[in-house]
Input
Amino acid sequence: ADHLVIKSDEIVWTHGLLSKQYTEINMAQVRTVRINQSILQRLLNAGNVEIYTAGDDPEMRIKGMPEPDKIRDFIKGQAA
Output
């Protein structure tokens, strides 16, 4: 029950089925987008997306996203 929306000014991630967790990040605050993939995820073109704003820990960590490279490129294009 994950839902990721990337707008021109913010990233909104909704997580949960019965109880919901919402995380919003202002696009201007995005510093780094990191992709982590296991061997199986590489074969399935999936991966974990981590979005960093400030500090050493990611503000948002989304597991098992399809086509993570496209997500990273889109976020970096919006943040520019």
Observations:
- The mean pLDDT is 93.
- The first strand starts at residue 2 and ends at 6.
- DSSP finds two helices and six strands in the chain.
- The radius of gyration is 12 Å.
